[in-house]
């Protein structure tokens, strides 16, 4: 296995497989792996759009084994203008996104007074919901899940 491959566990059959990354520059981006349903792998990443500081979530879904398993379908989801979004945490069903003004080119350059908003993104419904705002740039966000993980219940945000 090399750096351009994913190790995939199908939780329905408990079998491992190797998957290629989708085409493009995914290795340089923040990536979150999610359950796309029906034994498929989904992958999210954030990108900046071309117009007015548009922020975009890119969502790639790997096809099932019988359906040309090397194929990835891509969707893009606009999550607003004037902001940048960063993936801070993920489970198979949720992403936690940090939103900050587009004027700050990098999350590490924030000044202490900078406002940051945290959102949950439901992978199944594609709904974005504001969680809270924070002014402390050192804030960490964690997703609470049952431990040890159960294969029968889904984690919650």
Can you give a write-up of this model?
- It is a single chain.
- With about 160 residues, the protein is mainly β.
- The protein has one domain (about 5-135).
- The chain is built from no helices and 10 strands.
- Strands 3-4-5-6 form a 4-stranded antiparallel sheet, with no helix packed on it.
- It starts with a strand and ends in a 23-residue tail after the last strand.
Please give the alpha-carbon distance between the first and last residues: 32 Å
Count of discrete structural domains: 1
Q: What level of helicity do the residues show?
A: under 10%
Indicate the proportion of strand residues: over 45%
Question: Can you tell me the overall shape?
Answer: globular
Order of helices and strands: EEEEEEEEEE
How would you characterize the largest beta sheet? 4 strands, antiparallel
Poorly predicted parts: none
Instruction: Report the total helices.
Output: 0
- Class by SSE composition: mainly beta
Total DSSP E strands: 10
**Chain-averaged pLDDT:** 74
Q: Looking across the biggest beta sheet, what order are the strands in?
A: 3-4-5-6
Instruction: Report the C-alpha radius of gyration, rounded.
Output: 17 Å
């Amino acid at each position: 296995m090399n750096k351009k491959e994913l190790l995939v566990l199908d939780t329905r059959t408990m079998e491992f497989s190797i998957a290629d990354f989708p085409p493009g520059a995914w290795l340089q981006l923040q990536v979150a792996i999610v359950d796309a349903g029906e034994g498929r792998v989904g992958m999210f990443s954030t990108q900046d759009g071309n117009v007015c500081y548009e922020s975009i979530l890119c969502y790639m879904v790997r096809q099932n084994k019988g359906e040309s398993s090397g194929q990835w379908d891509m969707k893009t989801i606009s999550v607003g203008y004037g902001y940048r979004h960063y993936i801070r945490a993920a489970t198979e069903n949720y992403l936690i996104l940090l939103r900050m003004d587009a004027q700050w080119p990098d999350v590490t350059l924030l000044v202490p007074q900078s406002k940051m908003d945290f959102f949950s993104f439901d992978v199944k419904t594609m709904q974005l919901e504001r969680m809270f705002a924070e002014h402390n740039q050192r804030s960490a966000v964690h997703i609470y899940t049952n431990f040890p993980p159960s294969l029968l219940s889904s984690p919650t945000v």
